[in-house]
Amino acid sequence: MAEKLREGLLLGMGNPLLDISATVDQEFLKKYDLKANNAILAEDKHKPLYDELIELYNADFIAGGSVQNTMRVAQWFLEKPKIATYMGCVGKDKYSKILEERAVANGLNVRYQYTDKAPTGTCAVLITGKERSLCANLAAANCFTTSHIKVPENEELIKAAEYYYISGFFLTVNPEVIQIVAKHACENNKMFMMNLSAPFICEYFKEPLLDAHPYVDILFGNETELDAFAKANDFKTTDRKEIVLKIANMEKINKERKRIVVITQGSGPVLLAKDDIVTEFPVVKIPEEKVIDTNGAGDAFVGGFLAQLIQGRDIETCVKCGIWAATQIVQTSGCTYEGKPDFKP
C-alpha cells in the first residue's frame, strides 16, 4: 500500500541535532548536574561535556533530533523515498553534512535552512545502564527563521502535505512557524500533530504550548511529560487516565475530528484517549539483556504510528506499530535500525 503514497505527504519540523552518544557513570552526570532519564537544554556549564565525551568516552555520532528521528523511522516502514519532508536549521559545517547524508540515505526529503550564525546543533546522549540523559546544545537549530517556510519551494511542500508533525522542542525555537503551519492544517482540514517532548516544555514553555494546543489533532508524549503538563495546568489529579481525557477535551478549533492523545509509559502500557474512552495497549516485554539504549524509543514509536496513519490504517494499528518500532529501536544504539521492518498490521 505504501508504494501508492505520493511524495511530500508527511511534513516534519524540528531541531536537527547530531547525537553524541556514550556510556558514562553516575559521577559524570553529577559533575554536570544532570539526571538520568531526562532531557534539558544545555547551559554554559554543560558546554565542555561534548568535547569530553568525544575525547574520553569513545562516543558514537548518530543523526538525531527528535522529529528527524521520527521521520527516518516512518520512511523505514514506507520503503519509498521522500514521502516525508523534514525542515530544521543547521550550520554550514561537517556535522550538517553528516546529518544530511544519513537522513537522505534513510529516504527523507531534507529541506534544511543553513545558517552561518552558529554550528550544527548537538545532543549529548549520556547512557547509564538502561537509562539516558539528553543535553541538547541547539546552536544552529535555534536559528530557524519564518523566512525559510516562505521560500516558494518550501511553501509548496507545506501546502502539498496532508499530515504535519512538530516537536514541543520546536516551541523553544520558532512558535510563529508552528502557528502558521497549524492554521494552514486547520483551515484545510489536514492532520496537525505535536509531541510534548520534555517536562521542561510543559513547565517553561507553557504559553506557546497552550497557544498551539487548540490546533492539535493528535498529541503524543510520555508519562513524565504528561505528569508535568497536568501539574503546570493545575489539573488537580495524578490519575493518568483522567489527565489524558482532560487533555483530549481541551479547546479544539477544528471540530471535524476530536483530539486523540497517545502517551507511552516506558515498559508500562500505552494510553490512548479517543472519543472519551481511554484504552491501554500492553507493550512487548523484551529481555533485560537485549535492551541496549532507550534513547529514541519515543521517536521511533511516533515514526511507526505515523507510517500506518498516513496509509489510512486505524488508530489501534498505528499504536501497535508504534510499540513494535520502539521495541526494535531499544535493541540498538541510538535511533538506528537494520533490515526491512516485518511489522504485520
UniProtKB/TrEMBL annotation:
A Pfam short name: PfkB
Swiss-Prot/TrEMBL GO biological process terms: adenosine salvage; AMP salvage; purine nucleobase metabolic process
Domain Carbohydrate kinase PfkB, chain residue ranges per copy: 29-337
SUBUNIT field: Monomer.
Protein name: Adenosine kinase
Keyword field contains ATP-binding: yes
Broad enzyme group: transferase
Annotated GO CC locations: cytosol; nucleus
Annotated catalysed reactions: adenosine + ATP = AMP + ADP + H(+)
Domain of life: Eukaryota
Keyword set includes Magnesium: yes
Active site: 299 (proton acceptor)
Pathway(s) the chain acts in: Purine metabolism; AMP biosynthesis via salvage pathway; AMP from adenosine: step 1/1
Cofactor(s), by name: Mg(2+)
Keywords, alphabetical: ATP-binding, Kinase, Magnesium, Nucleotide-binding, Nucleus, Purine salvage, Transferase
Job description of the protein: ATP dependent phosphorylation of adenosine and other related nucleoside analogs to monophosphate derivatives.
Family, similarity comment: Belongs to the carbohydrate kinase PfkB family.
Cofactor annotation comment: Binds 3 Mg(2+) ions per subunit.
EC number: 2.7.1.20
GO MF: adenosine kinase activity; ATP binding
Location(s), subcellular: Nucleus
